[in-house]
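User: quick one, sequence for these tokens?
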């Protein structure tokens, strides 16, 4: 396995050192080599390194330590650029709909994965910021994103300030199905999570959250139903506002 894949970690604290321009250029070149829909590259990448803009972005990512990095790189679904090119060539684009949001989102995420591998090959660390979906309207305003362009993924990037442990993953049999999907039994489901539930890290989490199971940390602390519904509505409304649901 490629070393950068096997040793991937999420880093949440970074040194203030800037990323050299030549290194950033290689990362971006790697990103644009990713697979994409119809070779349309329906995405844009916004690299933010300006200290004032970084300070403005930090609250949109809940001021987590990982939001304070030398660079925040935001990947956007972007059907605007391709649509404008079509119009300049006398073609009629019809990409202002949900299926093309999904396509452009996929393009953006694939590009981000390439960038991450190149960054890690240079000794940089990254952390994906799931909060991008929580506060997309605010990010849109800060980054001055026009209609038909919407943030779908962001990551912090810089030289790691501390060492972090390799995070565990579920066993292959939990996520890989042969030929068709096979519903696992309750016993199998429990076996998939057994090692994680028995880990010292989980024991610390249970103590800190005063809860009896790891599952309840997810449902009652990390990703609560009321938050899920509120953020879903907020993001959906922003999709409509940005023109991705025109009929």
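Assistant:
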């Amino acid at each position: 396995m490629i070393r950068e894949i096997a040793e991937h970690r999420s880093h949440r604290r970074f040194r203030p050192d800037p990323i050299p321009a030549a290194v950033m250029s290689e990362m971006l070149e790697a990103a644009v080599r990713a697979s994409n829909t119809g070779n349309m590259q329906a995405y844009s990448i916004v690299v933010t390194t300006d200290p004032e803009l970084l300070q403005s972005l930090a609250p949109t990512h809940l001021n987590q330590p990982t939001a304070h990095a030398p660079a925040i790189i935001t990947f956007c679904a972007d059907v605007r650029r391709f649509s404008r090119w079509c119009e300049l060539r006398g073609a009629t684009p019809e990409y202002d709909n949900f299926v093309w949001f999904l396509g452009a989102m996929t393009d953006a995420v694939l590009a981000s994965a390439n960038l991450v591998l190149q960054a890690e090959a240079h000794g940089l660390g990254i952390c994906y910021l799931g909060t991008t979906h929580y506060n997309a309207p605010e990010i849109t305003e800060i980054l001055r994103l026009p209609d038909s362009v919407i943030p779908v993924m962001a990551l912090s990037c810089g030289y790691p300030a501390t060492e972090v442990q390799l995070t565990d993953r579920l066993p292959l049999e939990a996520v890989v199905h042969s030929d068709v999907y096979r519903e696992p039994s309750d016993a199998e489901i429990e076996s998939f999570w057994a090692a994680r539930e028995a880990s010292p890290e989980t024991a610390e989490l249970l103590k800190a959250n005063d809860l009896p199971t790891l599952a309840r940390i997810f449902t009652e602390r990390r990703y609560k139903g009321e938050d899920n519904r509120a953020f879903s509505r907020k993001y959906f409304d922003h999709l409509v506002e940005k023109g991705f649901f025109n009929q």
